[in-house]
Amino acid sequence: MKHALVSWSGGKDCAWALERLRGSDVEAVALLTTINEHFDRVAMHGVRRELIEQQARSIGVPLWIAPLPWPCSNERYEEVMSGVCRRAIEAGIDSVVFGDLFLEDIRAYRERMLAGTGLEPLFPVWQIPTAELAREMLARGLRARVACIDRRALDRSFAGREYDSSFLADLPAACDPCGENGEFHSFVYDGPMFHYPIPVERGEFHEDGNFTFADLLCPVSSH
What we know:
Elements: E1 2-7, H1 12-19, E2 26-36, E3 41-42, H2 49-59, E4 63-68, H3 74-90, E5 95-97, H4 104-114, E6 120-122, H5 130-139, E7 143-150, H6 165-170, E8 184-190, E9 201-208, E10 211-217
Parallel strand pairs: 1-2, 1-5, 2-4, 5-6
Antiparallel strand pairs: 2-3, 7-8, 7-10, 9-10
């Protein structure tokens, strides 16, 4: 049995990578999330830390937070990740799970990062056709909101929408159904990997450069 750290953004692809471990010889023992220290939000996705913490509680797996300064140089990022790798080895972890789909350069970078650390990179959803993967996730009960969109690929009205069949039908033909080229990022609030759904509400929109973010809020939960 392998013991894995799951690279966790809170989005659908990492959630489905986790789900794909079910019944395999890989056990997820922790989730790893990078947090922008300045905003206290997930780097890139802009999701609040408390929502990620809610996910981890519902999944029942410990959450590891890797704090990143803002702005963050690639050198500093790699220093932080080296520390995470050392912690993982000390915890008896032997692999890291990623939700990458088809970007070869991203996969190669992750493999280089882990080379010589004693940690094996695993890619459970790699090269599944993304239209097929999107249908599979929705059919099996994954529920997500779109947290961020790149306005170079999508109209800002896509931000905050439910990731569902209507969303997929409305996507421009050039847009990947899973947003693998960075067209959008998501936040999963329910699915087969959760013990209970995460209550989430859409707050205000804000823009940063080419990106529009929908501020997702977590009302008080009974869990």
